[in-house]
Design goal:
Length: about 80
């Protein structure tokens, strides 16, 4: 099976997804309550678990995906 992106694109996607995960987690914790409740903790654990899964995925992709041609930074949508 062929990769849909090259290494540079996977790096950018990883950076984007981790920034998004951190932003969402930060948003969850911007609360006026003094103490977090179980629901908030459970949501945080789920979000962190998903982020870890994504990091494992990107680590695997970065170790097995080749760099694209010099200056190549987009998916060819014209087909073969």
């Amino acid at each position: 099976m062929s990769d849909l992106m090259n290494r540079s694109q996977y790096k950018k996607a990883c950076r984007y997804r981790m920034r998004e995960a951190i932003e969402n987690l930060d948003h969850l914790w911007q609360t006026e309550e003094n103490m977090p409740d179980h629901d908030m903790i459970d949501k945080s654990l789920d979000m962190l678990s998903n982020a870890l899964d994504e990091l494992h995925y990107f680590r695997q992709k970065l170790s097995t995906t080749e760099d694209g041609p010099e200056g190549y930074d987009s998916v060819d949508t014209n087909g073969p």
